[in-house]
Structures are given as structure tokens and as C-alpha cells.
Automatic annotation (TrEMBL), chain A:
One of its GO terms (biological process) is mitochondrial electron transport, NADH to ubiquinone. Belongs to the complex I NDUFA8 subunit family. The lineage of its organism: Eukaryota, Fungi, Fungi incertae sedis, Chytridiomycota, Chytridiomycota incertae sedis. It is found in: Mitochondrion inner membrane. The keyword Transport applies. Accessory subunit of the mitochondrial membrane respiratory chain NADH dehydrogenase (Complex I), that is believed not to be involved in catalysis. Complex I functions in the transfer of electrons from NADH to the respiratory chain. The immediate electron acceptor for the enzyme is believed to be ubiquinone. This is NADH-ubiquinone oxidoreductase.
From TrEMBL, chain B:
The keyword DNA repair does not apply. The chain crosses the membrane at residues 32-52. Keywords: Electron transport, Membrane, Mitochondrion, Mitochondrion inner membrane, Respiratory chain, Transmembrane, Transmembrane helix, Transport. Complex I functions in the transfer of electrons from NADH to the respiratory chain. Accessory subunit of the mitochondrial membrane respiratory chain NADH dehydrogenase (Complex I), that is believed not to be involved in catalysis. One of its GO terms (cellular component) is respiratory chain complex I. Belongs to the complex I NDUFA13 subunit family. It is found in: Mitochondrion inner membrane. This is NADH dehydrogenase [ubiquinone] 1 alpha subcomplex subunit 13. It is a single-pass membrane protein. Coiled coil: none annotated. It comes from the Eukaryota.
Length: 152, 185
């Protein structure tokens, strides 16, 4: 994975004002969500955009070059934007409640199970997406579905 | 020497009185050792049972968090890719502008022949060797940034500190008014 660090020099910061040239990549709006809404919708994003995500990750596996996967990356971003718009149209209030709770609770998911349940129910009812934590041990309820969690 | 009858020291006839206890007397009191042992292990076992449950749940929570972040990687990485390409394009343009006079110079390319680089990493005007002999992608190590470039801003050492949250500048304090800029004091 090509990691990106902010261009910080000893004597200044590297701010680049030039945009991407359209022949390299057509412009795509950025998602622009902060960490809490993203954390809140992460599992639905993984479910909703699975095809594009898999494409993109396989592409990244081929090359470290950031230019190599711009097209796949745009698809991922467009898909994420689509999901965000749908969430805002259908479950805006529940989503807001959940991510604000996360924001106030150090981003600990187990602190916001009540809000999460409302949000998950709404998303399942309206969009048909479910939160599935991969690699949950056989025969165990997922930690977000526990009736009596020890941590709450 | 007259013989005397032998007098042997014997208990009094009828035995010693009952008040003198010459036998061990240790009655069994309380539960047996086995029961205490079992109870202690029971209490500890119950505690450990919940400790194990809590550990398992915490492990699951950690996994949930990890997968939460893993799910977001494509989204964040795609955004990062675009930003990186944008920056590298601009940096290459800037370097190309500066190095336009050097024939055969390819800006921000460490894999194409570079004029001046000789075999054995020596400076030789006559040779042109690539820096890296590889098929893989190589991220540029150094960037050329002219001092007067508008892509450079003053270093912002306060980034990430809480200094302006705890001690905001006077014009951002709640009691600031244009008539009384220093506030109520």
C-alpha cells in the first residue's frame, strides 16, 4: 500500500494548489466525511461497494504506482458517495445520532449499541444492507448483536 | 539389711479423677479441608470464568474495530492516490521547468537514464544511468521545491497542539467586542 504523508518540511508545508489535469483523471467529488460518519457506515460501505472495493484492492496489489488504479479508485469513491446520499435520504436522523454518539465516546463502538441498532435496523429496512463482521468464530453471535454485552 | 516390701508407683485405685485430661482432645470443627479447597477453587473459577468471557468479548470488539478500519481502506486509499498523483504531477512540472535546459532529463523519474549519473554512482557528464534498475514503481525520494514557490507555506508548528483551544487569541475569546477588544478583564 502506498502510504501518503502530509508534505511537511522543516521550514514549511507543501500545499499544492494545482488540481488534477482532466486527461489524467476526470474530476470526482471527494467524500469529505469526517472519521465518525465513516466509522459509522464502514460495514455498510463494505457490503454496498464490495465489487468496486475488491476490484480496487486487487488492482493495488498489482502495482504500487498511485497512477495505476485511478479509475478503480474513482469507482470506489462514486460508490461511496452514492451510499452516503442514500443514507442521508433514508436514515439521516439515525445515522447522525450514531456518529455523534461515536464522536462523543472516543469512537468506541460498544458505547453506542443503542444508536447503532436503530441505524442498522433502518438501513436494513430501507436499503437491505446488513452489518456483518467477517471471520466471526463459528457458532458465536457477532459482538454487536449480543443481548447482554459485558462491555457497554 | 532388712528387706522392705517393694512399693510401686501406681495410679490411685479407681483411676485418676476425670478433671485431669491426659488424652488428646481435638474435635472436628467446621468443614473439611477438601470442602474448603473446593470452595476456594469454586470462587476463583467463577471469577476466572468471567475474566475469560470479558477477554473473549474484548477480542471480538477489537476485531470489529479492525474490520471497520479495513473496510474503509479502499475509500481512503483512493482519495490518497488522487492527491498523490496530483502533487507528483505538479512537482514534476516544476522540476521540468527548472531542468528544461538539461537534455534528456526526465523530471521525477528515477528509473529512466539520468544525465550525469555514471556507473558505480559517480558523477560523470558523459554517462546516463538510471538511479534504480527495477521494473517496480519507485516513489521519488526528494522533491525540488523552489524557495519562492507558492506551493510552500510557512511551517505550522502549532498543528496538532491544543494551544489555541486553551488559550485562544484575544479576538476569538467570548468576551471580545470591537469597542473593548481586551474583554471585561
Amino acid at each position: 500500500m502506498t502510504t501518503h504523508r502530509e508534505g511537511t518540511f522543516v521550514e514549511g508545508l507543501w500545499v499544492e494548489k494545482a488540481g488534477l489535469t482532466p486527461e489524467t483523471a476526470p474530476p470526482v467529488p471527494e467524500v469529505g466525511c469526517t472519521s465518525a460518519p465513516l466509522e459509522s457506515m464502514a460495514f455498510f460501505f463494505a457490503d454496498y461497494c464490495k465489487k468496486y472495493n475488491d476490484d480496487y484492492v486487487l488492482c493495488k496489489n498489482e502495482s504500487q504506482d498511485p497512477r495505476h488504479c485511478l479509475k478503480e479508485g474513482r469507482k470506489v469513491t462514486r460508490c461511496a458517495l452514492d451510499l452516503i446520499n442514500k443514507l442521508k435520504q433514508n436514515c439521516d436522523q439515525q445515522w447522525t445520532n450514531h456518529w455523534e454518539c461515536l464522536d462523543m465516546n472516543n469512537h468506541q463502538l460498544f458505547k453506542c449499541r443503542k444508536e447503532e441498532k436503530e441505524f442498522n435496523d433502518c438501513v436494513f429496512k430501507r436499503l437491505g444492507l446488513t452489518k456483518v463482521i467477517p471471520e466471526t468464530p463459528e457458532g458465536q453471535t457477532s459482538v454487536h448483536l449480543k443481548e447482554k454485552p459485558l462491555y457497554k | 539389711m532388712a528387706t522392705q516390701p517393694i512399693v510401686q508407683d501406681l495410679p490411685p485405685s479407681g483411676g485418676f479423677p476425670e478433671t485431669i485430661q491426659y488424652k488428646r482432645y481435638l474435635p472436628r470443627r467446621g468443614p473439611s479441608g477438601l470442602v474448603i479447597f473446593a470452595a476456594a477453587f469454586g470462587v476463583m473459577g467463577y471469577g476466572w470464568y468471567w475474566v475469560a468471557k470479558a477477554n473473549a468479548e474484548r477480542r471480538e470488539l477489537r476485531r470489529e474495530k479492525a474490520w471497520n478500519r479495513i473496510s474503509l481502506v479502499p475509500l481512503l486509499q483512493a482519495e490518497t492516490d488522487r492527491d498523490l498523483v496530483r502533487r507528483l504531477e505538479a512537482a514534476a512540472a516544476r522540476e521540468g521547468e527548472q531542468m528544461g535546459s538539461v537534455a534528456g532529463w526526465k523530471a521525477l523519474d528515477l528509473k529512466s537514464p539520468t544525465p550525469g549519473v555514471g556507473k558505480g554512482a559517480v558523477y560523470d557528464k558523459a554517462q546516463a544511468e538510471p538511479i534504480y534498475h527495477t521494473e517496480r514503481y519507485v516513489n521519488p525520494t526528494y522533491l525540488f521545491m523552489p524557495w519562492g514557490s507558492d506551493a510552500r507555506i510557512e511551517s505550522q508548528w502549532w498543528r496538532g497542539t491544543k494551544m489555541f483551544l486553551k488559550n485562544p487569541p484575544y479576538h476569538e475569546r467570548p468576551d471580545f467586542t470591537p469597542e473593548n477588544p481586551l474583554g471585561g478583564q
